[in-house]
Amino acid sequence: MDAPHRSPDETRDHPAGRAALPPGQRRRRDFPRFAHLGARPPAVPAAPELAVTGAVTEELRIPLAELDQLVPRVERVADFHCVAGWSATGLRWSGVRFRDFWEQVVLPRGGAGDAVAIVARGGDGVSADLDLRDALADDVLLADRLDGAPLGADHGAPLRLVSPGQYGFKNVKHLAGIEIRRTLPDPGKGNHLRARVALEERHPRIDGRLLRLPYRMLIPLIARLSRTGGTGS
Length: 233
Hints:
The protein is built from 5 helices and 11 strands, in the order αβββαββαββαββββα. The protein has helices at 15-20, 67-70, 98-110, 132-135, 212-227; strands at residues 26-28, 49-54, 60-63, 73-81, 86-97, 117-122, 127-131, 141-146, 149-150, 160-162, 175-181. The strands form 2 sheets. Strands 1, 4, 5, 8, 9 and 10 form a 6-stranded mixed beta sheet that branches. The chain has a 5-stranded mixed beta sheet with strand order 3-2-11-6-7. It is globular and about 45 Å long.
């Protein structure tokens, strides 16, 4: 589960803000660091690359320094929604659209025309399965900048998958690899495959509305673990 680095700073007295948020979410004034349990920011390689593997005719290794030379750079303002129920709003991301990367780099060089899913893999060992329909949404980015500055270690340097329509656990930090798959992953895992925020797809078998309170109650514990090193620094 995504966990904030500091205790929540929720604003609950902003009617317009609440109305604009997806169901079950509460606005934060900040965008804290969060981490999967045990995940620590990895060292950034001197010459970072993005590897594309799996169901491709040719494995690709794209130097990140060349990424925006292959695909046009874009900037998007979007919100980030943690599955635990908090949202950081108005974040300004810069990078390339995943759809453009897919259509202009992956398909011409690696095939993968029959793919139905991807696995995004971070350099910290964290990964997320994504239905290709969600990955190809217009607002999904491979981002390397946040609010006008290069990504820092706390938010996923050197590259991060940003999928505003899905919960935070799909937004893989320290993105190092994309595995292409021709079959959808096993739905029996604890995380929902699609994790669409608007539909509260928090869990594959439990109604997301029932998890609002339990997940929120876990935030202070996970934040404390984060501060003491249990979820990374």
